[in-house]
Structure to design on (604 residues):
DNA sequence: TTAATTTCTTGCGTAAAACGCTATATTGGT
DNA sequence: ACCAATATAGCGTTTTACGCAAGAAATTAA
């Protein structure tokens, strides 16, 4: 049973004249006749009573006419619903840290919504270290992440901005701060060896920090391993240790008065923050569009 | 848009695997792929996001899935309303030899399909000797088989036709034919003792032949034991030995000019060919109906 | 790291389905 | 009695859908 057959039948049920319906439908009379005949065979009973001059609907035919009208109407409604080809609709599933929601994504989302009002954004938040994993698992379409040192082959990365990775120490008078001050050498460097560190549990920034420790020959005294830069900043502000976090996280945390960012000679390279997604997912017009808007929003100058 | 395309799409939306849906729908993977592609072209947008290993529904796809479910439900409701409620649907699983497919089953299937268009036939082919085993194991609903000498108690057998079991020898001039001719006695009998035999490996015809050898006091020189009468006929035609096969297999084999059927005094009784099924399975209205149609088709005069 | 496997797409040739043309039969109007 | 209108069915052609096979890509196994 197909839509065209329904249309043919509806026409015949209106005109009660195969020839007339053939004209209206731009089909031969025999084609109209056979189309209706096929419907009858599929249903197993006649829909029309015919002789060589006239046609009448049977009761089954009247029943079928109602069905055909309704079915066509639903088909047309579906077409209208799906049919705004030039207006992308659908969903984009995003993953990022709470901070990145407003510090990285907000301008992108503002621009995107202006041009794609029909798109629905599904936002999931958590440790930005999990973003790449979620993309690879197909749980989200796009994640905000630091650029990994080794990019999985099927992943695309759109760099948006750089954020310095800052060492931060408690601003308040506390044991940890005293230790940091005591560890400062005359040249301004800090001997970090004995100072309790609060480090990222996983992710790009953990790898960057591990690399830095190795390069500097520092064997840190790790006090805690924590998921999420925001939590690191919070713990440092409480005087529990020192840590690192992207500057944009520190600034967004509302704790800039409670942690002091420390400039370190030969410090960590800046974190390149951007969007990641599966290359294949970007074949989707919707995601491609989102990607493009993000690139345009930040200018892709990184 | 038609009902079958909707069904194909619904299956794919369930399995998210074209290969799996192809299996379930008894279609090739490429046909499934193309059917979905045609729907997408008709709607003007993708319903699935695909890569070479996986498939996901787009939001349009989810929308379409709802439409398809609803549309199919309405079609089925219409069917019920118009009185095909008592029309049996479902599947019948058949087992038979290749030859029996067209020589025994074809008229049954033609008649059955005319009256039961909604029933789906699953046909498995192989050595007819395996039919009864498969029925007893529950792997198939109905098998075409020779009538066994001892019927398992839970089995039913519907005799359809008799086919003479023919001795056949190579028609071409070859060593085996020379042996047969040399073995003919003045009264027309053949001393089979020294002639290489190609015998059925198993099944009713093997039992019938074994019984016959015993009754005739013949100790045959068995050259090969072969699964399937078709293969026996093929080997005889190649001059590898003599054999037996139901006449309908010989005639269907396309090798009637290459094997000679030999009339033998006190030869084998004819093979009663029919359907077998578990008695309990015949409680199913569907199988009962199939059984009845088979009986009517062949007139059950055997 | 390489090979094997799985999955989906597409070209190609074939089969099936749908079509238009034409002939036919029937009925009603003139 | 003749003509026109109507629907059906045979026939040949066109269109559509199919399975097979090859290919590409991703994942898994060795």
């Amino acid at each position: 049973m197909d839509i065209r057959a329904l249309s043919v039948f509806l026409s015949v049920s209106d005109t009660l004249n195969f020839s007339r319906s053939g004209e209206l439908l731009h089909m031969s009379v025999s084609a109209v006749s056979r189309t209706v005949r096929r419907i009858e065979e599929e249903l197993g009973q006649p829909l029309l009573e015919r002789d060589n001059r006239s046609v009448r609907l049977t009761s089954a035919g009247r029943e079928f006419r109602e069905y055909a009208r309704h079915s066509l109407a639903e088909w047309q409604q579906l077409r209208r619903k799906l049919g705004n080809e030039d207006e992308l609709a659908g969903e984009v599933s995003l993953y990022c840290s709470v901070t990145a929601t407003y510090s990285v994504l907000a301008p992108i989302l503002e621009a995107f919504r202006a041009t794609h009002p029909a798109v629905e954004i599904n936002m999931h938040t958590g440790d930005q270290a999990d973003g790449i994993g979620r993309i690879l698992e197909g749980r989200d379409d796009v994640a905000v992440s630091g650029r990994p040192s080794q990019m999985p082959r099927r992943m695309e990365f759109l760099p948006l901005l750089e954020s310095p990775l800052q060492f931060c120490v408690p601003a308040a008078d506390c044991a940890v701060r005293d230790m940091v001050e005591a560890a400062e050498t005359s040249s301004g460097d800090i001997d970090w060896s004995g100072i309790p560190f609060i480090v990222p549990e996983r992710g790009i920034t953990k790898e960057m920090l591990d690399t830095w420790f190795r390069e500097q020959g520092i064997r840190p005294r790790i006090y805690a391993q924590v998921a999420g830069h925001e939590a690191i900043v919070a713990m440092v502000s409480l005087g529990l240790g020192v840590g690192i976090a992207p500057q944009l996280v520190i600034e967004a945390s509302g704790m800039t008065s409670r942690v002091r960012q420390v400039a370190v000679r030969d410090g960590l390279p800046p974190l390149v923050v951007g969007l990641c997604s599966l290359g294949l997912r970007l074949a989707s017009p919707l995601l491609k569009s989102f990607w493009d808007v993000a690139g345009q929003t930040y200018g892709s100058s990184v």
Residues 27-31, 34-35, 38, 51-54 of chain A lie near DNA strand C (CB under 10 Å from a C1').
